[in-house]
Amino acid sequence: MRFVIVTGMSGGGKSSAIRMLEDAGFYCVDNLPVSLIRTFIDLLATPDNGITKVALGLDVRADQNFEEAKRVMDSLKADGYPFEVLFMDASDATLVKRYKETRRVHPLTRGDRVEDGIARERKILESVRREANYVIDTSNLLTRELKGEIDRIFVEGEEYSSLMVTILSFGFKYGIPSDADLVFDVRFLPNPFYVEGLKHLTGNDKEVQDFVLSFDECDQFLNMLYDMLQFLIPNYTKEGKYQLVVAIGCTGGKHRSVTIANEIYRWMKNKGTYGIKLTHRELKED
């Protein structure tokens, strides 16, 4: 039987993950009282019950001590019960925004600000996050992208790294993305904006792509960048980084940066066990 404990920060996407696991054929139970966890698992362990995949949701609540849940998890591990831990997370800024949008009360605010409740919860869950088999940071994930990550781990059974790589194109005239980890400037390449017939197209159009990729400088740049990413990503993963934003910038963010971002995304898509997404900040459809 595959047994997954789904936990994480309140507002991090635990409920969504459980729904997706249910759609994937898991028998799901959420917010089971801690005192019943061991009984529940013992029942599941009985032979011939027909259940082969189970997901149990655990979260921090004001009316129960999460340390007790942690002790139950430790005792299960000591007794040889095989289970995996999926930890759902998001940045503090994202969590605050989600609470404000939904007007829900954080379970640990105790009448204080939402930020205070988040800080208390993060401290409580620190050790669980550190020991989790999978950590998914949903700060920049769309629902379909989260489903892709869940399916990749629990349906397709791929080897998993908790690193999520975002390839982001942008225009320098609108500012460097505040969440960028690596920023590359491709304004050294000839600008399609000044080429007849290309001005009103974007790097998603073949005509622009053919123009940008036709230069030797572009080919050299991409090869050197690929080598750098091949070196950096495993080391970021080893150090426990969960989000990596690779930002590619040109003047307006519609031609050169989009073309290069698309090429990097295509190259990286099947290169590793990490998750990957592509975003073009300055294109209206994004």
Throw out a few tags for this protein.
2 domains, Rossmann fold, single chain, 286 residues, 5-stranded parallel β-sheet, 9 helices, alpha/beta, 4-stranded parallel β-sheet
Summarize the helix and strand pattern as letters: EHEHEHEHHEHEEHHEHE
Cα gyration radius (Å): 22 Å
Helix content: 40-55%
Kindly state the number of beta strands: 9
Structural class based on helices, strands and sheet pairing: alpha/beta
State the CATH architecture of the largest domain: 3-Layer(aba) Sandwich
Integer average pLDDT: 87
The first-level CATH class name of the largest domain = Alpha Beta
Describe it for me?
The protein has 286 residues and is an alpha/beta fold. The chain has two domains: 2-154, Rossmann fold (3-Layer(aba) Sandwich), CATH 3.40.50.300; 164-280, no CATH class. It contains nine helices and nine strands. The protein has helices at 14-23, 37-44, 66-78, 92-102, 114-131, 143-154, 206-213, 216-238, 256-268, and strands spanning 2-8, 27-30, 53-57, 84-89, 134-137, 164-171, 182-185, 243-250, 275-280. The chain has a five-stranded parallel sheet with strand order 2-3-1-4-5, sandwiched between helices. Helix 1 (14-23) crosses helix 6 (143-154). The longest helix is centred in the last third of the chain and has 23 residues, at 216-238. The chain is elongated and about 70 Å long. The model has no long low-confidence stretch (mean pLDDT 87).
